[in-house]
Every structure is written in structure tokens, then in C-alpha cells.
Amino acid sequence: MCSTLMIILASSTSKILIGHQKSVNGYVDNKLAEMYAYETIKYAESYVYEFDLKYNLESPVISCDGAASKLNVSRGQLANADCLNIRRLVTLDKSINQTIDSGSCQNGFCYKPIEKNIYLANNSFNSDYSWQPWKLLPSVMQKVTQPCNSYIFKSADKLIPLVDDRASNYSILYPVNDESLCTYPRFIFEAINLDYRGVYQNDENSEHDIYYLNQSRNHDDLIIYKSKRDIDDLDSILINSARLYRITVVAFGRSGDTRVLLQEIIMINNHNTINSRTLGDSEDKRHNRIIRLSTRLFNDE
Description:
By secondary structure, the chain is an alpha+beta fold. 28% of the residues lie in helices and 22% in strands. The strands form 2 sheets. Strands 1, 2, 3, 4, 9, 10 and 11 form a 7-stranded mixed beta sheet that branches.
């Protein structure tokens, strides 16, 4: 009797210890994935800034007339307020060779307009914020391979989200110096606001409409948008509006069952050599060019 109780007690203790060890291992693996996610998002911020700079989204080369014709609308149908949005949208479409009226990801850039084929509606140029491209599953023609053998499939049909593709054909891979991981972290990004103007600060003594980052005017009173007051002319815009991007990083631990998502919204603007955004601003001040607005770490089930 005593011998039997000892065996049962030993077995129970062993199961508890094994369970505890798995819990500890899982916690450590999750923290490892989080560490690499934060490392990756720092790289992603600079990548998105260079992307924005490469295509000159601050002030695209294409004219309003040229952009309107690309969308099969007349220049007369566009208000001046829409012009910069249209120029930025068409520049993106031409540059990345991506269909602008359907949700898709290509080389890490994901885009889905809020209102399909309605280019003149307010905000229809921005990528749909409610869309979740990190959950986007492959079509029949898209080939996606699991990132590692221990990867846990989330869907019953064993479809793998595009962002998890081992070859990273639909996201941007960030190689880290750790071969023990299931796979390297990767990220995607979206232009969720192509014409972000910040918060308007009324100044009766000024001949300009000036928009700052927020009501408190911190961050060295950074100006997000500035134009001459009561002049309905494109030349009245002295400082072009900023762009908001959403970055989503997916990072794995050593186990394919450990998967974390880190998401950040950043504001991108360029240095204005004629009209300074803030006192002492310069092109090399990256903390003015790339501004984090929000960051969240979450598990995507």
C-alpha cells in the first residue's frame, strides 16, 4: 500500500515538474521572440522612411492633371485638397506595380483602399485600417511554405498566412544572428493615411493655417502641415502633410508554436529646406522624420 502511494506521488510530482518546465521553456521562447520583434521594428522604421523617400511621397513628381488622368477622372473633378492625395496614390501604384483597387501584399507593402474604385470620396485613398493583412491567406496561385517543421497551423485546412511564408515572398525578412529560431522575423507595412495633417492650432495673428503633432505642441513644436490662409491655390501649401504607416512585425521563437506580433504606427515627413518644420530642423534629425505614434504587442489567434 505504502509502495503504491509512493509510486503515485512520484508520478504526479514528475508530471508537475514536466508541466512546469514546459511552461518555463514557453515563457523563455516567447521573450526571445519579443526581443527579436523589437529589434526588427527598429529596422522596419528606417526601411519605411527610405521607401517614402525613394518614391518622393512628400511631393510626388506627377502633376494633378497627370494623376487624374491615370484614374480616368478630369482635373475639374478634384478639389485642391484631393490633389496631393491623388498624386501620392498614383505614385505608389506606378512604383510598386500593385493593383490599387484590391487588397494585396507585394514585397512587404500591403494596400487595400477603403472604398473600392471610389477615388473622390474622403479618405478613400488610405489603406483600410480595419483590414488585417497579417492574416491574409494565399490564393490558389500563391505558393506558401511553412516556416519550420514545428510550425502550428491555425486553420483546419492548413493554409499558411502569406506573412509566415518561409521564403518571405510577401514580406520583408530581417536576418538575425540566431540560427536556432524557427525562422527569421519579418514585417509588412501599410500606408493608412496619405495626408496626415496633425492637429490644427488656431492663431488669429497668423496669416497661415498651421497644424502641429498634437494639442500640447510638444516634440519641439513640430509642424505637420502649413498653408496660407484663405487662398485656394496649390502654391499656398508651404509644408506638405505627413504620412502615417502601420508596421506589423511577425517574430518566432525556437519553436514554431511561439509566434508574436508587434505593431507600430509611425508618422513620416521630409525635411523642408525653405519652410522649417521646427526650430533647428535638419535632414539628418531622424527623430523628426520618423515619429512613433503607438506601439502594441499582441498574440494573433
